[in-house]
Amino acid sequence: MPRVSSLSERQSGEGVIEFRHVSKVYEGGDVGLDDASFEIVRGDFVFLVGSTGSGKSTLMKLLIKEIDPTSGAVVVAGKDLAEMDRKRVPLYRRNIGVVFQDFKLLPNRTVHDNVAYALQVTASSRKEVRAKVPDILRLTGLSTKLHHFPDQLSGGEQQRVSVARAFVNHPPLLLADEPTGNLDPETSIGIMQLLYRINLTGTTVIVATHDSAMVDRMRRRVIELSSGRIVRDEVSGLYAPRDMSTAEFGALLREPAPEPKRVREPGDEFDEAFRD
Predict the structure, then answer these.
(1) For residue range 144-168, what is the model confidence (pLDDT) as tens digits?
(2) Domain 15-95+171-274 belongs to what topology?
(3) Cβ neighbour number for residue 99 with a 10 Å cutoff
């Protein structure tokens, strides 16, 4: 049987994200989430898996406060998102990097300017832009492409620009929605390696994906959804559970999970969004 981690095992108290019996029912009666409860601690790397319509996108939209739950509480850094004034939502979202399957790059801007735009909308100074953009382009392997436009790049390079833009502000939380969905397997590996390097800096990373090979290769935490319900929450999990021998299961329990370097205290970056 798969391992389901309890809150105590996940170091309760260090949580960046908590879903407390969260349900979301859309107009017309479609169920997005059904009584979902889990905690994600700072520095975690988590895969969300499940078929289309299982609830992954609903979960992501709740985290960026694009929608609100029908019942239950979505808590980020100890703060219930229901208590956040709508005027504060843009400020809150600045602390969340988002990577999309279809890249969402500005076609008339260069690689440099696409990444710089994420800083400009937060009123960063020119000095900050000059300092941060070259650093993130080096991290993402785009230093030689800074003057290229999106249509001059491969799909993998465009996704790297998307990741660079999402991470240039060094957010404490990064969400990736099917980041390898349009990419070939070899390119997908590079994108996942990049997300993992970002995770090692202390950023919490949540990836919604159908990429079974990548999930099986990385063996990180897996939360599986089905019809809006959490059916599996497994440490060092596979894309799909499989029957394993007692010896295999025991070895899995003894295997230590890599601990990312943690450089932030949870909640510091989000507090301003909740201030009066």
Answers:
(1) 999 999 999 999 999 999 999 999 9
(2) Rossmann fold (3.40.50)
(3) 26
